[in-house]
Amino acid sequence: MPFKNDGFQATYKQLNYTPPLCPTEAIPLSDNGKLSSPNYPISNYTASQNCTWIITVPAGKHVKLAFTDCALGSCALDCSSESCTYVEVYDGASASSPSLGRFCKGSVLKETFSSGQQMFVKFHSGSALDRGFEAQYSVLSVWPASMILNETSDVISSPYNPRKYPDNQTCNWQITASQGNRIVLEIGPINIESCGASGECTCDYLQVQNGFSVDPGASERICGSHQKIKYYSMHRSLNVMFVSDNSMPFKNDGFQATYKQLNYTPPRK
Ligand SMILES: [Ca+2]
């Protein structure tokens, strides 16, 4: 049936269109991959941008973030001014989670690790422009232990304890008993900066993983002041993490803890 219908018409015109460099909502990411500032690596980032990402890994796993490149415009060394360009990493699902570190020009680019299954990353650009950053994120099955301890008994503590601890610290210990044994960890006294509603510990905290405790004061994150909290490992290993954020350095004593191995006899049926 040719020449029976009119078809259609449409008009088009050119528009000046600048795509938004950073969406308002955090960009969701999962598993392993790379993230970078806008325009990277083709040209410099643009001033006054806020890009955010939320990285989610399966329950029970952790996120690792490592910089592969970082060239940010100059700013004061503590990265505190909003006119600075910086990357900030948070231990959780948003920028109200505890900070694992803020990185600007001149910062030591340490790797960061989430204690749970989510990590939030924020890139903020100030007025001084440069190439930007690129970072690799990946899934970890266990907290990385910067210290692996397998002595039958030893003492661990926050940095400089019994003196007050500095800011921007992340310390991890994996304490492992010999095959079939368990670990008992006695923490105290504890004096850690306390922020957020009770139990939230949004600035500095101590966290014990793969263990249990019946003591008052034991919670997912520990902060504030406590005399003694005792943990037992559920299996061979106990993981301990101490995090301090970038506020109020040298105000609190931190903690010290003693661990020892326990002979463990599985319950008989
Ligand atoms: Ca602090």
Walk me through the structure.
With 269 residues, the chain is mostly beta strands. The protein contains no helices and 19 strands. It has strands at residues 27-30, 33-36, 50-56, 62-71, 86-90, 99-103, 112-113, 118-124, 132-140, 147-149, 153-157, 169-176, 182-192, 205-209, 211-212, 224-226, 229-233, 237-244, 254-262. The strands form 4 sheets. Strands 11, 13, 15, 16, 17 and 19 form a 6-stranded antiparallel beta sheet that branches. Strands 1-3-8-5-6 form a 5-stranded mixed beta sheet, with no helix packed on it. A 4-stranded antiparallel beta sheet has the order 2-9-4-7, with no helix packed on it. It is elongated and about 90 Å long. The termini are far apart. The model has no long low-confidence stretch (mean pLDDT 89). The site of calcium ion has 8 residues, from loops. Calcium ion is lined by residues 167, 193, 203-204, 244-245, 247-248. It comes from Desmophyllum pertusum. It holds the Pfam family CUB.
